[in-house]
Model the fold of this input.
Amino acid sequence: MMTNDNRRFNLLQLSKETKTTRKTLYEWIRKGYLQPTQIAGTRRKYSLEAFQIAEAKACKEALLTEEEKAELAKQPRKIPDIFFDRLMREGMRIYEMNKKNNALAVTN
Done:
């Protein structure tokens, strides 16, 4: 159930408002479930809506059986193609720079 509550809370306030431990909230942040609704400098504020979304994600994960968790852990993680594209471009840039420096060294 989503509320139409526009209040923003820091973690201590959110834990008191929702009666959830700060340790649980920090774990949800680490896992990426709880996202800040407002960021001002280094201060992060969270809404009740963001809390409810994180709670739903945590409940969904908690309902996985041990076999499903083990199956997810076995699946290979694919490295995005953009990583290799950037790696190739960086390698070509270094190659061209070294080629140019070697040519300058030979002429001097």
User: Anything to note?
Assistant: The two ends are 74 Å apart (CA to CA).
